[in-house]
Amino acid sequence: MREPTVAVAFGGGGARGLAHIHVVEVLDEMGVKPVAISGTSVGALIGSGMASGMSGGDIHDYVLGIFDNPTEVASRFWKMRPESIAEVWNGPRTLLGNIDSKRAMRAFLPEQVKEDFSQLEIDFQVLATDFYGQKEVVIREGSVADAVAASIALPAVFRPVKRNGAALVDGGLVNAVPFELLFDKADIVIAVDVVGGPTADDDEEPSRIEVLSAASQLMMQTATRLKCQIRPPNVMIVPPVNGIAVLDFMRAKSIIEKTTSTREATKQQVSAALDAFRKT
Fold this sequence. Notes:
Blueprint: E1 6-10, H1 20-30, E2 36-40, H2 42-51, H3 56-67, H4 70-79, H5 85-88, H6 101-108, E3 123-130, E4 135-139, H7 144-151, E5 161-163, E6 166-170, E7 188-192, H8 208-230, E8 235-237, H9 252-258, H10 261-278
Parallel strand pairs: 1-2, 1-7, 2-3, 7-8
Antiparallel strand pairs: 3-4, 3-6, 5-6
Helix pairs in contact: 1-3, 1-10, 2-7, 6-7
């Protein structure tokens, strides 16, 4: 009897995606190496590390080495600075959301991440959104850093990434957890949903800002539920990320600590899926 093959889809969710680290670490501990990975937004970033051969411990240490050190964060943000005054003032439309995501990747992506998809140890797919084409784009070749840059290009924070004539933005806008890309690649598909949702404080009504920031979460949750009704993944892991802001990366240590229960959930669900396959 052969062992089942496993594929993992890492979803988008900004800083909430730091919970993905628990999943990578547990798979390492279980001796489970995916044959394929897909990722959206921060999930693409984590996936690029895993596909390049980084362990969960490597990713964990790298994240805390940066975001638990304000001086290190400041140094990397300095590397993202505009190269000229003209770039800063290049028209009123660029005053908001003017961060170059490619430059951000050069500043923050681990050196261990391979330059090209052809160099990766694991089959890897990155999900982005074609803004004008109004559709998802799956990137499987070329520069890994540029693909991740497109996938994380959150509107109002990053500029769109130009690729093959298209303006690409955050993949979460069309597909927050791209697990359906993996059904033909492995026996068991694991999906990790870190979209999260709003949390209630006492009995107060949410503010307009809270409603606005949570609107995308609610829409992404709905889209993922509809996909699951059509064909769910074998394993769906949902870390406890409610209440974590999308740009809360400076709270990396506390986020990882808050989502520690993800470890046991991952171990139990993956073990159950493996056992069920072996019995067939």
